[in-house]
Design brief:
One of its GO terms (molecular function) is protein kinase regulator activity. This protein is mainly alpha-helical. It is built from 33 helices and four strands. Among the domains are: about 40 residues, no CATH class; about 100 residues, Arc Repressor Mutant, subunit A, CATH 1.10.10; about 55 residues, Alpha Horseshoe (Serine Threonine Protein Phosphatase 5, Tetratricopeptide repeat). The strands form two sheets. A two-stranded antiparallel ribbon has the order 1-2. Helix 18 runs antiparallel to helix 19, helix 24 packs antiparallel against helix 25 and helix 28 packs antiparallel against helix 29.
């Protein structure tokens, strides 16, 4: 039987098996092997995928390459994200020792073509390069390869560390990231912008973002990260560099883990759950109450991320329990707002003030309610948290829970006598906040508890306008059935109809127009004009219905000064006497911007009167 017939028979319809064997055959042919040698090799290839992977590790990969193969497999298997070909060149060639004496100038990197060949050779064809978002990344040829390595493949590659391949793997990657950060000396950092830094240091994004993540995972797996103490002693500038670099490459804190300026090693390791380092730093006499630029202490970091043993260690060392950061947040609020039940329990047992106000974040109960952590809410209530305490962006715990759509918490708070009509916060009351999110079942629950459907106040002035702006048609209908005033005035958009128009919700607009025989369309100064009969909807209302999105675009273009787009809109029949939500009239907006050319254009083409007033009573002049 010919070797290709043997291969087809062995595949038994399994594409992945065939793909793997084709790769092996290709290497045999490239190396000048005979057809007989290929037939003999195929006869030894197992039929199960897992056995094939093991066969490749044992028979295809050269034994002297095992350590480099292990390194490659760790990167592909354990990396926080797939590495690019540029990054894998660094990852495979940076020092892995913990002596931290490497220098940037000493790095010798292979060409991309060499790296591609090396990756295929080291992996036995199990790793491939793939185009992704204009980058070339490394990945396993199939998810089953990753599964195989997690289930013993990594252990097989390194018999010296049997029993903890994952923990040792993360430790390995953490050390490599640390070495890269360590070789970037402060005098190398000439240009403080992300693009320049990424160009100068291609591995910096991965190393900076993932260093402590790998360290945390390694320690969680039982591999202590005490190398960090030696590293910081050997490279004293590394921590400051890391913070500075992190804040540049993650300027918007998309990771949620960006460190603050003046963070200490105790802060960072407390947040990363590195208990061995925290203990070591405390033994060395590190200042327990030192603060970063936002006023966070080590206890804030540990509580924020829910690290129970770190919290216990810090408290046992004498950490102050109710200290605030610059935003007024306490350790208890940080733990509660992130749903860390065990940390909350420990802090309460140690005497944390359950009702301490924490600025824009309200208090611990408010934070837990907003997060949606019912168990933490119940625990705080059991410790006498004030269910009607006011403060924070959403004023109280009930409003925070309702805004997030957490119905079981809303019910729990109501059962504990939360006031359904308390006024305050961005949305003025709980019903308005709930309607804005379109949480109809919670709206019904609040109405059943006698929430006032026509209470005025907040960004949208009333509940109906909030629901209309969000386009929540069924909620709008529910509110109308409960006698919500369809002509109520005020708020960012004037009334419910204009709010629906600005949101581009035609069906909601039509629903509002059906409610009564008269509907008031408001100017921005909220004086009702022109009551229209349903049977004869005004030209202005019909314009809102037909061209809601165009109105939004027009006002946005006026606000940005896009003269070409403004002229095009006017040529296509755009009206200037239709207000644009918080942008008010186009003429007011352009006058406020001081854009004489657009002001002149609008005056010439305007269908509005020059003495129209905005919601603050101001004319364009």
């Amino acid at each position: 039987m010919e070797w290709h017939d043997i291969m087809l028979e062995g595949a038994q319809g399994v594409f992945q098996w065939a793909a793997l064997v084709v790769g092996i055959v290709g290497r045999y042919l490239k190396n000048g092997k005979s057809a007989e040698e290929i037939r003999q090799m195929l006869a030894k290839v197992p039929k199960q995928l897992g056995d094939v992977y093991k066969h490749i590790l044992e028979q295809v990969i050269e034994k002297e390459d095992y350590q480099q193969t292990l390194r490659l497999m760790r990167w592909v298997c354990l990396a926080e994200r797939p590495l690019t070909i540029v990054e894998i060149c660094f990852a495979m060639n940076l020092s892995i020792t913990d002596t931290f004496d490497a220098e940037f100038e000493e790095l010798e990197l292979p060409t991309h073509d060499t790296m591609r060949r090396r990756v295929v050779s080291l992996s036995g064809g199990l790793v491939e390069f793939k185009k992704h978002e204009e980058q070339e990344i490394v990945q396993f040829i199939h998810q089953s390869v990753n599964d195989f390595l997690f289930q013993g493949g990594l252990d097989f590659l390194d018999t010296m560390i049997r029993g903890n391949p994952i923990g040792q793997g993360h430790n390995h990657l953490s050390v490599i990231c640390a070495n890269y950060i360590g070789i970037i000396r402060p005098d190398y950092l000439k240009k403080p912008d992300e693009e320049a830094i990424q160009a100068q240091f291609p591995f910096v994004d991965y190393a900076v973002r993932s260093w402590y993540s790998h360290a945390e995972k390694a320690e969680t797996q039982g591999v202590l990260q005490d190398y960090l103490l030696q590293f910081i002693q050997h490279r004293p500038y590394a921590l400051t560099n890391w913070i500075w670099l992190y804040r540049i490459i993650d300027s918007y804190n998309t990771s949620g883990r960006r460190p603050e300026y003046n963070s200490t090693l105790l802060h960072i390791t407390s947040g990363a759950n590195l208990l061995s380092i925290v203990n070591g730093l405390l033994e060395l006499g590190y200042e327990l109450e030192s603060m970063d630029d936002d006023g966070n202490r080590a206890l804030h970091y540990a509580s924020r991320w829910g690290h129970v043993q770190i919290v216990k260690t810090l408290l046992d060392a004498g950490a102050l329990i109710d200290e605030e950061n610059k935003s007024k947040c306490t350790a208890l609020e940080r733990a509660a707002a992130n749903g860390h039940r065990e940390v909350v329990k420990m802090l309460l047992a140690k005497g944390a003030n359950v009702n301490k106000q924490t600025g824009n974040t309200g208090n611990a109960l408010y934070g837990a309610a907003l997060k949606g952590s019912r168990t933490v809410v119940q625990m705080l209530l059991d410790h006498k948290a004030d269910v009607n305490a006011q403060g924070g962006e959403y004023n109280n715990a009930l409003q925070a829970a309702a805004l997030g759509g957490h119905q079981s918490i809303v019910q729990l708070l109501l059962d504990c006598k939360a006031d359904v009509n308390t006024q305050g916060g961005v949305y003025s009351n709980t019903l308005q906040a709930t309607a804005l999110g379109g949480h109809q079942s919670i709206v019904q629950l609040l109405l059943d508890c006698e929430a006032d459907v026509n209470t005025q106040g907040g960004v949208y002035s009333n509940t109906l306008q909030a629901a209309a702006w969000g386009g929540h048609q069924s909620t709008v209908q529910l509110l109308l059935d409960c006698k919500a005033d369809v002509n109520a005035q005020g708020g960012e958009y004037g009334n419910a109809l204009q709010a629906a128009a600005w949101g581009g919700h035609r069906l909601t607009m039509e629903l509002l127009l059906i409610v009564e025989t008269k509907l008031h369309l408001l100017h921005p100064n909220f004086l009702p004009i022109d009551p229209f009969q349903i049977q004869n909807i005004s030209i202005k209302v019909q314009f809102l219905l037909d061209r809601g999105q165009e109105i939004k675009d027009f006002h946005n273009n006026v606000n940005s000064g896009n003269k070409t787009a403004i002229i095009s809109a006017l040529d296509n029949g755009m009206k200037t006497d239709v207000p644009g939500g918080n942008h008010i009239y186009a003429l007011h907006t352009s006058a406020t911007r001081g854009d004489l050319a657009i002001v002149s254009l609008l005056i010439k083409r305007s269908s509005s009167e020059l003495n129209f007033k905005d919601q603050n009573g101001r004319t364009p002049l």
